[in-house]
Specification:
By secondary structure, the chain is α/β, with parallel strands linked by helices. The protein has twelve helices and 13 strands. The longest helix is centred in the middle third of the chain and has 22 residues.
Length: about 350
């Protein structure tokens, strides 16, 4: 397989979404012949138990890259300690019109307004049934764009029931800026209702399936301290097992004046790094020691991954960093976090 340093200029000459699709197809092809592992290097074994699950290492794939779980086996070969697929909705939907994905290379950033484009939950489940991967797998669930906000709970419950048998954990996405009014579900009353319904449904499904699938909540980087404290309290009240911080930001402060900066959508990559870390720190202060926080946003090197742990994260996830730095980033971050824990570097109370 072509080294990423060679492939990147060719991919960056293409429309970002086309490059994304081409890369995934290439990974699938290489995976059939063992080429992905050659590209990524030796996977890092650094087992850690979080949410009652055993992770191969602390570095995961963030949701959004494989929305339909169509490339799970090839992505697993990159050495991730866990994968998260989706966001998936009850019914298929095309998402927003193209173009809807934009690079801001001067800041190693992306802006997307994809809009939960996916083939629907039944297609995702069928793909997972065919996958050979048996590691930790999260499924990120959301609502259809045309579902009224007052009926959003129904969409989340529908997806939870469909994916339950195939997921190691399920992430509740209420923080994408690309589905109208979705972030209103982060408000205290709306989130209280949603989490209450999801916890009740999860308990019912646990009895039916004979196993408890942990729930995680994914939140935005644009919340203030009072909102973060309110969310932390709800996580504990409803027994939600983890929180993922964070999704993309609607702020453009870090990219003002650059090409594509005025495109609507969520900004990811280096510009969201500090905002994400601020939320991780606030959550760590508001939650009990050891409560799992998955830190995501702006990780482009090993030092960035370590900074998430210092802020209070237990695990981390990558997405935009892979676009700019390539698959070798997975192993670099996994080794850095393994060494940080072994050497007892000053890590905040998010240790597993």
């Amino acid at each position: 397989m072509i080294p990423y340093a060679v492939a990147r200029p060719l991919l960056f000459a293409l429309d970002p979404e086309t490059a994304h699709e081409l890369t995934l197809r290439a990974l699938d092809g290489a995976g059939r012949f063992g080429g992905v592992q050659v590209l990524a290097g030796c996977p890092v074994d650094d087992p850690v138990e979080v949410m009652g699950l055993r992770f191969r290492n602390r570095v995961g794939l963030a949701a959004g890259l494989d929305k339909n779980a169509a490339h799970v086996d090839a992505l697993a070969a990159l050495g991730f300690g866990f994968l998260e697929v989706g966001t998936v909705t009850p019914r298929p939907q095309p998402g927003n019109p193209r173009p809807r994905l934009f690079r801001v290379p001067q800041r190693e950033a992306l802006i997307n307004r994809m809009g939960f484009n996916n083939d629907g939950v039944d297609a995702l489940v069928a793909n997972l049934a065919r996958a050979r991967y048996r590691g930790v797998l999260g499924v990120n669930i959301g609502k259809n764009a045309d579902t009224p906000l007052e009926r959003a709970v129904d969409d989340y419950l529908f997806c939870l029931e469909r994916v339950y048998a195939h997921a190691s954990y399920v992430t509740v996405n209420v923080s994408s800026p690309n589905t109208a009014k979705l972030r209103e579900l982060q408000s205290r009353d709306a989130l209280d209702e949603l989490l209450d319904a999801l916890r009740a449904k999860r308990d019912e499904l646990a009895r039916r399936h004979g196993r408890v699938v942990p729930l995680a909540l994914k939140i935005a980087p644009d919340l203030d301290d009072a909102q973060i404290e309110a969310i932390a309290a709800l996580l504990l009240r409803h027994g939600i097992e983890a929180v993922i911080a964070t999704n993309t930001t609607v702020s453009r402060e870090k990219v003002t004046g650059l090409p594509n900066a005025t495109q609507s959508g969520g900004l990811s990559g280096a510009p969201v790094f500090e905002a994400s870390n601020r939320v991780v720190r606030a959550l760590r202060a508001a939650l009990p020691r050891g409560y799992p926080i998955i830190g995501v946003g702006g990780i482009l090197c090993a030092d960035d991954a370590r900074a998430k742990l210092v802020a209070g994260a237990t695990l981390v996830q990558l997405y935009t960093g892979l676009i700019y730095r390539g698959p070798g980033l997975v192993g670099q971050c996994a080794r850095a976090l393994r060494d940080a824990m072994r050497n007892a570097e000053p890590v905040a109370a998010g240790e597993a």
